[in-house]
């Protein structure tokens, strides 16, 4: 699986949710992910390095891993199924690699606290409508206006037509996965 390193491009609250926009470090692509307000708050606190007297959930996770002498190596956004992103937290515990299934928002909140790299698989970028980084100030302003009114269904409306196109790096669907329509099994 080809991985592309990403970083946080922007985090914005829009109505009752947040839009986390990830940017490809060595490329021009952006990837918006809609997340809940609490998850957005957790990511925002990590971005601004806010500390609290008592550990919040993601901070507690980091403390437990540190006590276990576990290393969080990386976070990978691995898949997009039915408009839902999937992620993994890759760890090393006592010289053994472990992969933990997690939501992208939690994975990113943990990665920011652990200061580990974040990646998006090429298959995820390929399955999404292409969004490129704005270049001029006008393009930045236009992008911000689009984000204020964009809904997840607007972003994913072209997903079906893009999904039907063949992709050489696309992972094979699991025939036992209940989310795969019967006609594709």
How does this structure look, described?
The chain has helices at 37-47, 57-67, 104-114, 122-127, 137-149, 152-156, 159-164, and strands at 3-14, 17-24, 29-35, 70-81, 84-93, 96-102, 118-121, 131-132. Helices cover 34% and strands 34% of the residues. The longest helix is centred in the last third of the chain and has 13 residues, at 137-149. The chain starts with a strand and ends in a 21-residue tail after the last helix. With 185 residues, it is of the alpha+beta class. Strands 6-5-4-7-1-2-3-8 form an 8-stranded mixed β-sheet. It contains 7 helices and 8 strands; from the N terminus they run βββααβββαβαβααα. The chain has one domain: Bifunctional nuclease domain, CATH 3.10.690.10.
> What's the structural domain tally?
1
Extract low-pLDDT stretches: 165-185
Radius of gyration: 17 Å
Helix-strand topology string: EEEHHEEEHEHEHHH
CATH topology, by name, is Bifunctional nuclease domain
Q: What structural category characterises the helix and strand content?
A: alpha+beta
Percentage beta strand: 25-35%
Total strands: 8
Give the C-level CATH assignment: Alpha Beta
Determine the mean pLDDT.
83
Helix content: 25-40%
CATH H-tier superfamily = Bifunctional nuclease domain
Alpha-carbon distance between the two ends:
22 Å
Keywords:
185 residues; 8-stranded mixed beta sheet; 7 helices; Bifunctional nuclease domain; alpha+beta; disordered C terminus; globular
Q: Short description, anyone?
A:
The chain is of the alpha+beta class and 185 residues long. The chain contains 7 helices and 8 strands.
